[in-house]
Design a protein that fits this description.
Elements (H helix, E strand, L loop, with lengths): L2 E6 L7 H14 L4 E5 L26 E3 L13 H13 L7 H22 L1 E7 L7 H18 L5 E4 L31 E5 L2 H10 L6 E3 L18 H5 L7 E5 L8 H15 L16 E5 L6 H13 L6 E5 L18 H7 L2 E4 L10 H8 L4 E4 L4 H4 L9 E2 L9 H12 L1 H18 L2 H11 L20 E7 L6 H9 L13 E7 L6 H11 L5 E5 L5 H16 L11 E5 L4 E2 L3 H11 L4 E7 L9 H21 L7 E5 H6 L7 E4 L2 E4 L3 H11 L4 E10 L3 H4 L2 H6 L31 H16 L4 H26 L7 H7 L1 H17 L12 H22 L12 H4 L6 H10 L5 H6 L6
Parallel strand pairs: 1-2, 1-4, 2-3, 4-5, 5-6, 6-7, 8-9, 8-11, 9-10, 11-12, 12-13, 14-15, 14-17, 15-16, 19-23
Antiparallel strand pairs: 17-20, 18-23, 19-20, 21-22
Length: about 900
């Protein structure tokens, strides 16, 4: 069973934070998940609950919520309420963190260890953090981040954490600077993590979060939502008034909240007194034929949370002569009917709402961020009154909800026009009914559950979400695993999966037990995984596995998928001599109907370790662009010749590798480089893998019948980079920008710091690129970069890695005997000069390949013209620095040029790879 772990930084058994957690948990409960909740007693120091055992807290929650906490927290040396309070005071409020830094680090390490141990014991699949950005407990915040990173990495989880904030420090009591001053230099900012998706309650909270942490990605608005169901008097709550001593015809003003000073319940007591003075002790007017007594104030909250505040409010009610009409009913169960019953009287907030005439929420201006009581009143079809607290308009007012609103900037207590408006609403039953009905209908549109559920289903889709531990065993009949790395490919993926599903063999549809699909989700945020799971559910005869790779990059995703498939295949019950193949595919390309069959047949009929596919473009896509198509065609013709000679090198768009060879060379290796001060993974993992296999002595075979149609967007949306040789980066950095077409602006969930206009401009530019042809000058430049990329990699590199190929008659005929012999001698000289045993280490082949290109370019191009066609032309011009080098020193300066890794000039000359 999948397990959801919730942790609330609120440290309160019954609060808006806990109620909202229960709403989310209910969605996962319906999928069969097991729900655990840590109330956070061991997090917040000011609630006086540190290490206090749970007693009757479970009575306030649904039976399916298992109250839990991280085991052994109380054994972390030095971790207690006093330490947490001291850190908050010294580090956050006084901004003096040096003394505490090593202490906090030590506490965080111990806490993280115990949090992870608890998750391991339960097998946690999803974590929901509520209010975790409040900096009251820096050590626990850091521990939680550390636990998420280590646990997620260990289990190769994707975004398994929903981190949601209700009361960020700028929304909660900013006037007293409880959490320091902006930009909170000693507060741990939210971290970009491949494991975390952040949620803000409304657009204003999102804006403020990004103002504080502009680096933050993967954040959405996840509003509080409510089940819209009118509250009604029924047999279960018919005795409510009797049990609390409230006359049947007395209007009830309901206040359900924590009894603490910040909630300003004193305003409600003054309101009650003001209504009495306004209407007289006899009561408000009553409907015809009925009598009505003076209104009552009913406060549902725990008096024991702040006994001094409760005593102050009781005394205030007595002073204002309304003490007999103020009822403190104790803690009530939340609004949702199925989340438990209160300990006293067995009533819930919904029962109170069924009897209430109005709901009051006259809170402090700077305390509340959302205001659950207002939403619950709207969803229960009860009118409400409120103060204009900081975010009232952002959440409710600007949406058009109707209510009397006290402007505390003008009046701290209810009086004047506000008091008269409340009195009129209480007196006019028709107006109350009309107001409640209007708000109810508007609330269904803005506050309904469907919006939140849709986002949650996109972020955490399907009933099988969780660690990749429950994949069924691989049957013995399966011979191939097709590995597909994906990142935000929700739109393209259905067509890709459909092409894999409809593979054909020699005599009809390919037996789908012969192969499976392993989709590696690389932190997609567009519902890609949900698309894959939906396709799998609709096509149960094809095994589709969805696994996650949290480290961003196609290289990392391909490595994970290949390793996952290899490990799975080891469990098959088959003969030891039966080969198993790992197959790579790209989510944005289309494979031919017989793609897999052709690969399997070629691999089975020979001894090659890798089968390389034929890659092509659909000519019709380039109709009307003859210059661009001519450059592409020339590149494809060259490739067909050299692939037939040397077998080529694998490209992630499509190749197959023998599993045992894959494992023997160590699988896909990810190489790292530094860009803008950060490590990023290298893009050429497929080529590097082919080099490792070739260097191991294994063969590579070209399978021309196994076709892969390249997505033309790889050219269309990077046309300027293709022409200028920057499609894969520059200055020696091998990366590729995202070439997916931008979604329309209205489809985007969010903007990233004002990028909307720039994104629209880029979309227009891309649209223009898709329809334009190259100029003659651009065509010459594009071909120069394409052929400079092609020749070192496809004609020189194979013989550099395997000089014995030069003894093959076909290879010798291609080069000519004289050139083949001189190439062989020069390779040995360069190898000796560079003190290399071989050229297998990643990228050690670049310098010699580039050197051989410059030394033999004229002769190699002559052979290409003879075998491919005269339109191959002459070698592109030399770099300016080499043009005036004396002939007798040419090879010497070529060496300096190609070995100059600091300037990256040689990488820029060769263009770091063309996309044709």
């Amino acid at each position: 069973m999948s397990v959801l772990w919730g942790v609330s930084f609120d440290a309160t058994p019954l609060s808006g934070v806990v109620v909202e957690f229960v709403k989310i948990a209910k969605i996962f409960r319906s999928r069969g998940w097991r729900i655990h909740l840590d109330l956070g007693y061991d997090i917040k120091a000011d609630k006086n609950s540190f290490f206090r055992p749970y007693t009757d807290e479970a009575d306030l929650l649904p039976a399916w919520v298992h109250l839990d906490r991280a085991e052994g927290i109380d054994t972390v040396p030095g971790y207690d309420a006093a330490a947490v309070a001291a850190v908050l005071r010294d580090v956050v409020q006084h901004e003096d963190g040096d003394r505490w830094r090593p202490v906090v680090a030590s506490l965080a390490a111990g806490l993280s260890e115990r949090i992870q141990a608890t998750w391991e014991r339960l097998g946690v699949s999803l974590v929901v953090v509520e209010n975790g950005t409040l900096p009251e407990n820096i050590a626990y915040t850091q521990a939680l981040y550390q636990a998420i990173e280590e646990y997620g990495t260990r289990h190769r989880l994707g975004r398994f954490v929903l981190w949601r904030d209700h009361d960020l420090m700028w929304q909660s009591e900013p006037d007293v600077a409880k959490y320091g001053t902006f930009p909170y230099p000693h507060t741990p900012q939210p971290r970009n993590s491949p494991f975390i998706h952040y949620a803000a309650l409304h657009p204003e909270a999102l804006r403020r979060t990004l103002e504080w942490a502009p680096h933050l990605r993967n954040i959405d608005v996840l509003p509080n939502t409510f089940t819209h169901r009118p509250a009604r008097i029924d047999p279960s709550n018919a005795g409510f008034r009797r049990d609390f001593g409230i006359p049947e015809n007395a209007p009830i003003i309901a206040r359900f909240t924590r009894i603490i000073p910040q909630k300003r319940i004193d305003r409600d007591i003054h309101l009650l007194a003001g209504l009495t003075a306004l209407t007289g002790p006899a009561a408000l007017p009553a409907p015809a034929g009925r009598s009505r007594t003076a209104p009552y104030l009913f406060v549902a909250g725990d008096p024991a949370e702040d006994p001094a505040e409760h005593a102050r409010l009781v005394a205030l009610a007595a002073t204002l002569n309304v003490g007999d009409r103020v009822v403190f009913g104790g803690p009530f169960a939340p609004h949702e009917q199925d989340v438990g019953r209160s300990a006293g009287g067995g009533y819930s907030i919904r029962d109170l709402l069924a009897h209430a005439a109005l709901v009051s929420f006259m809170t402090s201006r700077d305390y509340e961020s959302y205001g659950n009581p207002i939403g619950e009143a709207i969803a229960s079809r009860v009118p409400y009154i409120t103060t204009r607290y900081d975010l009232y308009d952002a959440v409710y007012g600007h949406k058009g909800f109707r209510a009397p609103v006290l402007d505390t900037g003008a009046h701290d207590l209810p009086e004047g026009a506000f008091l008269e408006e409340v009195a009129e609403l209480l007196a006019d039953e028709g107006k109350r009914t009309g107001t409640a009905e209007y708000n109810y209908r508007l609330g269904q549109r803005h506050l309904g559950r469907s919006r939140a559920e849709k986002l949650l289903n996109e972020l955490f889709p399907g009933p099988t979400a969780g660690p990749p531990a429950a994949h069924p065993p691989m049957p013995g009949s399966t011979r191939m695993s097709v590995v597909v790395p994906v990142y935000n490919e929700a739109r393209a993926l259905p067509a890709t999966l459909d092409s894999l599903y409809h593979q054909r063999g020699a005599d009809g549809p390919l037996d789908r037990s012969l192969y499976e699909v392993v989709l590696v989700d690389n932190n997609s945020t567009d519902g890609t995984a949900a698309v894959a799971r939906r396709f799998a559910a609709e096509h149960p005869d094809l095994a589709i596995h969805v696994v996650s790779e949290p480290e961003q990059g196609v290289s990392c995703a391909r490595r994970t998928g290949m390793a996952f498939a290899s490990a799975r295949s080891r469990g098959r019950a088959v003969r030891d001599d039966q080969r198993f193949y790992l197959v790579s595919a790209d989510a944005d390309c289309r494979v031919d109907p017989d793609w897999l069959w052709q690969l399997l047949t070629a691999m089975e009929s020979g001894k090659a370790a890798i089968g390389v596919c034929d890659y092509y473009y659909a000519p019709e896509h380039f109709a009307g662009r003859p210059r661009l198509w001519e450059v592409i065609s020339r590149t494809l013709r060259c490739r067909a010749v050299t692939f037939a000679l040397f077998g080529g090198f694998p490209d992630g768009k499509g190749f197959a590798v023998d599993r045992d060879v894959h494992d023997a060379v160590g699988g896909i290796e990810v190489f790292y480089q530094v860009r803008d001060g950060q490590f990023v993974n290298h893009l050429s993992d497929d080529w590097d893998f082919g080099i490792a296999v070739r260097n191991s002595g294994a063969d590579i075979v070209y399978v021309p019948g196994s076709g892969v149609e390249i997505n033309p967007r790889r050219v269309d949306h990077a046309l300027d980079e293709v022409i200028s040789g920057r499609a894969y980066g520059s200055d020696g950095i091998i990366v590729m920008r995202d070439i997916r077409p931008l979604r329309p602006a209205q489809d985007r969930v969010r903007d990233r710091g004002g990028d909307r206009d720039r994104g629209q401009d880029e979309a227009r530019t891309q649209a223009q690129d898709r329809v334009r042809d190259l100029t003659e000058a651009e065509a010459r430049e594009a071909w120069a970069y394409s052929v400079k990329d092609f020749v070192p990699k496809n004609t020189i590199l194979p013989v550099l890695l395997t000089p014995s190929l030069l003894d093959d008659d076909g290879v010798a005929d291609f080069f000519g005997r004289s050139l083949a012999e001189r190439l062989g001698r020069r390779i040995e000289e360069i190898k000796d000069e560079m003190r290399l045993i071989d050229f297998a280490p990643i990228h050690s082949y670049k310098t010699p390949s580039y050197r051989l290109y410059f030394e033999f370019a004229d002769e190699i191009f002559a052979r290409l013209r003879a075998t491919v066609g005269p339109d191959i032309g002459e070698p592109p011009p030399l770099p300016p620095c080499l043009r005036d080098v004396p002939a007798q020193r040419f090879a010497e300066f070529v060496r300096y040029y190609c070995e100059d890794r600091e300037s990256g000039e040689s990488h820029n000359y060769f263009g770091n790879g063309g996309v044709f």
